[in-house]
Amino acid sequence: MMLFLSLPGHAAEEYVPVDPKNQKAYIRLQDGAKILSGETSQAQWLRLCQGLGQNLLANNSSPGFLAEYLCQREEKEPAGAAEASWRITFITRPKFIDIDIQFQVKGQWTPVQTFSFHLEGEFLEDLQKASVLRFLSRMILESLPTGWIYTHKAGGKTTELIMHPDMPLLPEELLIYQLHFVPGRNLWLPRVKARLRRTQEFRNLEQGRAESFEWKRTYGTLKDGERYWIQNSEGRNQRQAEFEKKINGETQGFSLLNLLDRMLFESFTSNYAGLRYGHSFVQGDSVITQTSLISLLLELRSGPLSGLRWYYDLTPQAQQTRFGLQEHFEMSRASLGWAWEFTPPESWQFLISRIDLQPKIGLLNLESELAVQNSLGEYRLTRFEAKQVLNLNAELGLEKELLWMRSRLWASYSSAQAGLVQSNKVSVTSSRVGVDAYFDLMKRPGWDLKIMGFGFAERLSLERDSEDLEASASDLAIREFGFNLLFIGGGITISW
Hints:
By secondary structure, this protein is mainly beta. It has helices at residues 39-56, 123-127, 130-141, 240-248, 259-268, and strands spanning 16-17, 24-31, 68-71, 86-92, 97-105, 108-118, 148-151, 158-163, 173-182, 187-205, 208-218, 227-232, 255-256, 272-280, 292-299, 308-322, 325-338, 340-342, 354-373, 379-401, 405-416, 426-444, 447-464, 480-495.
């Protein structure tokens, strides 16, 4: 398999040579997760940066693709960083890290490769280990269109490439090539000069393990002492899993994230604020069938208040005349809670991406007058209200994340007993089950806009304290009162 496909060019296009002799990189940190909190972490970052830079330098004892590198110190950009041909950026996020690699031509930066990974241990401490940096740098080299630098030595039927002893053996076949970049089309165009095949021979040297390769085929003259690029003939990123396993053996829970994994981590660490509107779909002729719902929500999944949940539901007053009587119904409910989130076993994750449990405390206000038939067959207005009812709530949620949407199935139960608040002479119980679905509408750096659909059904039961039972000519003495609610609607949320 060839390394790249070269496409026909156009006369006006510029072909920029990527010279193995003068590649320079600026290694920096975008600390979104705020891990650089003092002199110790600054020093750890500098050791990590310098260790990676040294492993990416081309020398006689190990492969590399750089002639020079610069490290970010604190938040200052060092002199010469703007002229670097490569920029390697570590981007810290609440639960994962990105390594973003870009190439510069005349001030224009082109994305080349991004690695996303999760690390259970301390990012700065684990990644500055010498063995981890060797494996990480090797994974980077095998992901780039440049590969690493090969210096040709003329003569002989074989050539030797030196690797560190703990590195995996090089691929079976390698390509030696010159490389050009086409800025207008973001194309990397190689000119293959030779193909190498690994023999079974290798020998241990003081500076490392020398692996022997034979010349399988040449496509032009290779100059003695000249530098070329060399890469796996099967293409880039062919051995990521192998290096992931190596790094995982040296650190606590290192794992590379594919696109869906990364989306899961982004979603799981995103904060949400939203507004939604729904309408009652309860069947019947009661005023409850005329009600609507307006909701505000705030869900924090990152930062110092990660886990905080706040919801406010308002059912504005609805009125109607039934049996010659003026019915009305209105309700508001606020709740504040905290979410504990769990990742299900891998065998479940085709159905469930995450499980959350939310204990909450809330306040309920309800006022209603409904036409109720008494034992004589007459309809009378019955008033039932609950003011500032303090209730305790438990909610269980099951989330599923897909490339194009996030859905959550949930169920909750809340209860408040009479006397929990001194003025409260009403006991309230509520059982709810619902589903929410979020769809991407707009993505911008740092925030996303989503549309959402939702629906939930609820059984709400209220019971008066026996001391509060007072009937009049116009009010039936009803101790217990229960009704069903069903709301379906949509809304909009912003996540960051």
